[in-house]
UniProtKB/TrEMBL annotation:
All residue ranges annotated as the Heterokaryon incompatibility domain in the record: 50-136
Name of protein: Heterokaryon incompatibility domain-containing protein
Alphabetized InterPro entries for the sequence: HET, HetReg/Transcr_Mod
Pfam family membership, one: HET
């Protein structure tokens, strides 16, 4: 069984952020990703082709697992629902910026630092998706 994911610190020089890259993997039922550190250009121009996600954080405890850099990573039901939909219908880049994964939420210093750059991260994205959750079907 894979170990739980542990973040490496972001470089202390320049402005850096992480991007999640989807990796199709037929050998596991879990969705597999690579988390890579990138530098954020100060001029707001980036050649990176990524999608930024804006979504509601669920109140519930993380209930699903994905694989990040060969380690297990726990995510909420809402984020898992997005990833399933995105994977099956994506027509854009395979790089994602998702705050719950790309920012080390346990590191308060990193979290505060990254929040300062969120506007630039969203502005620099090729696509921005606002995810409200899976549609609920009403019984008729």
């Amino acid at each position: 069984m894979a170990a739980l994911y542990e973040y490496d610190p972001l470089p202390s020089t320049g402005v850096h952020f992480r991007l999640l890259e989807y990796e199709a993997n037929q050998y596991t039922e879990l969705m597999t990703f690579r988390l890579a550190v990138k530098e954020l250009p100060l001029d707001n121009r980036t050649s990176l082709d990524y999608t930024a996600l804006s979504y509601t954080w669920a109140e519930d405890e993380p209930s699903h697992k994905i694989i990040v850099n060969d380690s297990l990573f726990s995510i909420s039901q809402n984020l898992y629902g997005f990833l399933l939909e995105w994977r099956s219908s994506r027509d854009g880049p395979a790089l994602l910026w998702i705050d719950a994964v790309c920012i080390n939420q346990e590191d308060l210093e990193e979290r505060a630092s990254q929040v300062r750059y969120m506007q630039q991260l969203f502005r620099g994205a090729r696509n921005v998706i606002a995810w409200l959750g899976l549609a609920h079907r009403q019984a008729t």
